[in-house]
Design a protein that fits this description.
This protein is of the alpha+beta class. It folds into six domains: 8-200, Orthogonal Bundle (Hypothetical protein af1432), CATH 1.10.3210.10; 216-358, Beta Polymerase, domain 2; 396-460, Ubiquitin-like (UB roll); 482-554, no CATH class; 573-644, no CATH class; 652-726, Alpha-Beta Plaits, CATH 3.30.70. Helices cover 48% and strands 16% of the residues. The protein has 27 helices and 20 strands. Strands 1, 2, 3, 4, 5 and 6 form a six-stranded mixed sheet that branches. It has a five-stranded mixed sheet with strand order 12-16-14-15-13. A four-stranded antiparallel sheet has the order 18-19-17-20, covered by helices on one side. Helix 4 (78-86) packs across helix 5 (101-118), helix 8 (162-182) packs antiparallel against helix 9 and helix 11 (216-236) crosses helix 13.
Length: 727
């Protein structure tokens, strides 16, 4: 067919599959389909695009096997089969217009699915399953993906890469088996589950397989012996019915063993029988209970295993009677009793089997999948399947993180919604994003399949305008909370700043005067007044002057202003004015202000310092503190000037980092110098030695920077000491 690298066995298998496919699908194909498909494959082969996949499978062989499976077991017809055969020869959005719009649409859907996988997503999420469905556009794309996965799982035994087999099996178990179940492809679903179990948990698989080593004939014989007497008694009672009997799959048995924490022998219902009655609506319950009475009179029931969803149906509408009885050879058999109507509701309606087993889904998806399943079963794979288009998830978008996780958002959601979905901290500091590698703003709407990387900045903070950007209630609530917390902090900082300035001016804080001040400056609430102080919206000097006049009843005339040309700047006077105005003097005389020394830089008397106002008080930092530039940049309104009082008071802890050669006695020399120094106390020492060097942190109590500088000068004279620095 195509000049490809195939061994003898593969070529024979390919020719056999090709001829079988032509015999079965040939009458449905359009004139020229085969010639055009072959031409495409030959061109791809000549261009070197027909390469074996990671499993060692040739793409043409795999496509033929998938096409046969899709035709025989799923019911796809011309458009679906042609699309499967074209897959190896078409890359990306390459035009395939010569095969018609339907085939082009399917190929486009398959291409979009491949794009999802290139993003290396975490497929073990319900969102990825839904995203795959929404990307498919045409429901035949989903059916082709299921057929392709079933075909791959059947050939997985030939793959020698154990890790790859396990990865593909886990994906099949989580993603494709539930999809097949939802679509009513029960045989494929069971096969995918069993084969996945075979490669993910081989010990369990072969253990159960060995336990089920009885031949199919013997199992059928058992079911026959069990059903025979029941059929006879039901006919005698004048009931119209039909019975389905089956042995549970290996995967189903394993799930029961794990859930019930029991060995194989402890699983009650290895065999399941479903009795479906053809009863008129008014006699449904009566005939179900009549059948129940007949069965329990013939076989011993287990009362603990009775499930009566006939008297009180499940909330989703499921109706049925379940009972487990002891059949021939003392084997437990589960019997389900229902009518044709109940069975139709359970299989195709709102109480479909996959839902009452606990598989989560959503209303739109439920209706769509139920419709497809009903169509597949009712039409027996007719052309109606090929004419069915999927219009789903118009109100939802699914978006990737850089790591491949998927999140769901309402249509119209923006980058900012995505940021708040990740974490409120990420949202509060979000400045934009990269969507599929391109820069995007906070307002950029999200589209399904987008890969979004959020960009943040430490100086970013929420703004009231953000409330009009986001669409999700979660993001709105987080923004409101952040704005409320920010306002509360700033009000408190504004109040503390005002109180501190008043104390520096030797003014007492009087509530009545403060209330008058707020109203005089045009504010209705004191909270708004303090907020404006914190944000620099009010001149603090003017506020102090107004407050002073209110408290002191100051009515003196203001002296005329002196010309600026006559003004002479005196540095000493400026320093005195600044200190009088708003400089924090650190010492024992400082009362009414809660302050403490920052641990990050451990300031001591003599260091050049500043104060940082927080809710818990004021932290004193060194001017060369590693955190100082960021604090000044982000919170300039919370910075206060600070200086030490006239003399030092007490000792302060500081840490020195010492690096030197690991010579004998050097540590003893260092500690000896420290211990001999007057008014110095060694609190702790931690030394690490490697490659002939030592590194250590020494914590001491020191009175001021002068003593510290003298100590460091002496330590540098110790032979072998290479570096001393203050942390």
């Amino acid at each position: 067919m195509v000049n490809v690298q195939l061994n003898k066995e593969e070529r024979q298998a390919l020719v056999a599959d090709y001829r079988m496919l032509l015999r079965r699908v040939g009458p449905l194909l359009h004139e020229g389909d085969i010639r055009l498909v072959r031409r495409r494959l030959e061109r791809a082969d000549a261009e070197g695009r027909l390469q074996r996949d990671a499993f060692g499978l040739h793409p043409v062989m795999r496509s033929l096997e998938t096409a046969l499976l899709a035709f025989d077991e799923i019911g796809l017809r011309r458009d679906g089969v042609v699309a499967v055969m074209l897959r190896p020869a078409v890359s990306g959005d390459e035009a395939v217009t010569e095969f018609g719009d339907a085939v082009a649409r399917i190929m486009h859907g398959l291409s979009r699915i491949q794009e999802l996988y290139r993003k290396t997503p975490v497929v073990e999420t319900e969102n990825f399953r839904n995203l795959l469905l929404s990307f498919a556009e045409d429901m035949r794309v989903v059916l082709i993906m299921i057929a392709d996965r079933a075909s791959l799982m059947r050939r997985l035994r030939d793959c020698t890469d154990e890790a790859l087999r396990r990865e593909v099996s886990r994906e099949s178990m989580f993603l494709y088996a539930p999809l097949a179940h939802k679509l009513g492809l029960y045989q494929i679903k069971s096969e995918l589950e069993d084969l996945s179990l075979k490669y993910t948990e081989p010990e369990a698989y072969y253990h159960i397989k060995e336990k089920l080593s009885e031949t199919k004939a013997s199992r059928d014989a058992f079911i026959g012996r069990f059903i025979g007497p029941i059929e006879e008694r039901l006919r005698e009672a004048g009931l119209r019915f039909h019975i389905k009997g089956r042995t549970k799959s290996i995967h189903s048995i394993w799930q029961k063993m794990k859930k019930q924490r029991c060995p194989f022998e402890g699983v009650y219902d290895l065999f399941a029988i479903r009795i479906i009655l053809d009863a008129p609506p008014e006699k449904e319950k009566m005939q179900c209970w009549q059948t129940f009475a007949i069965i329990t009179s013939m076989y011993q029931p287990n009362p603990k295993r009775l499930r009566d969803w006939l008297s009180v149906p499940k909330s989703n509408g499921y109706e049925s009677l379940h009972i487990t009885v002891v059949g021939p050879e003392q084997k437990w058999v589960e019997v389900q009793i229902r009518t044709e109507r109940m069975d139709a509701v359970a299989e195709r309606g709102v109480a479909a089997h996959w839902r009452y087993k606990g598989i989560k889904s959503e209303t739109g998806l439920d209706e769509w999948l139920t419709g497809i399943r009903a169509m597949l079963e009712a039409s027996d794979g007719s052309e109606a399947v090929d004419q069915f288009r999927m219009e789903l998830y118009e109100d939802e978008v699914f978006v990737f993180t850089p790591k491949g996780d998927i999140f769901k958002f309402p249509k119209g959601a923006t980058v900012l919604d995505f940021a708040y979905h990740i974490h409120s901290k990420v949202g509060n500091t979000c400045t934009g994003a990269r969507i599929n590698g391109r820069a995007a703003t906070l307002r950029q709407p999200l589209k399904s399949g987008d890969q979004v990387e959020i960009l943040t900045a430490a100086n970013q903070h929420p703004r009231p305008s953000w409330l009009s950007i986001v669409k999700t209630s979660h993001a709105k609530s987080k923004i409101r909370l952040a704005l409320k917390e920010t306002d509360a902090k700033e009000r408190l900082l504004g109040k503390e700043a005002l109180e501190r300035r008043l104390k520096n001016r030797k003014l007492d804080l009087e509530e009545n005067a403060m209330h008058q001040l707020v109203r005089k400056l045009g504010f209705k609430e004191a909270s708004d007044f303090y907020l404006q102080i914190a944000r620099g919206g009010i001149d603090m000097g003017h506020v102090i002057d107004v407050y002073s006049s209110l408290v002191q009843g100051d009515t003196h005339e203001v002296a005329p202003a002196e010309s600026a040309s006559n003004f002479v700047l005196h540095p000493e006077r400026l320093q005195q004015e600044q200190r009088r105005d708003d400089v924090l003097v650190i010492g024992s005389r400082l009362t009414g202000v809660d302050y403490h020394l920052a641990r990050c830089c451990q300031p001591i008397y003599g260091d050049s310092v500043f104060g940082f106002v927080g809710i818990g008080g004021i932290k004193i930092h060194r001017n060369d503190c590693p955190n100082a530039p960021e604090l000044r940049r982000r919170y300039p309104y919370r910075i206060v000037q600070a200086c030490w009082s006239g003399k030092g008071e007490g000792s302060y802890p500081i840490t020195l980092r010492i690096v030197g050669h690991d010579d004998i006695g050097i540590i003893n020399n260092v500690t000896s110098i420290i211990s001999k120094e007057d008014k110095l106390t060694l609190r702790s020492i931690k030394i690490d030695s490697h490659d002939g060097l030592f590194e250590g942190n020494v914590t001491i109590m020191v009175d001021d920077t002068n003593r510290l500088d003298a100590l460091m000068k002496k330590l540098r004279t110790v032979k072998g000491v290479k570096q001393i620095s203050r942390l």
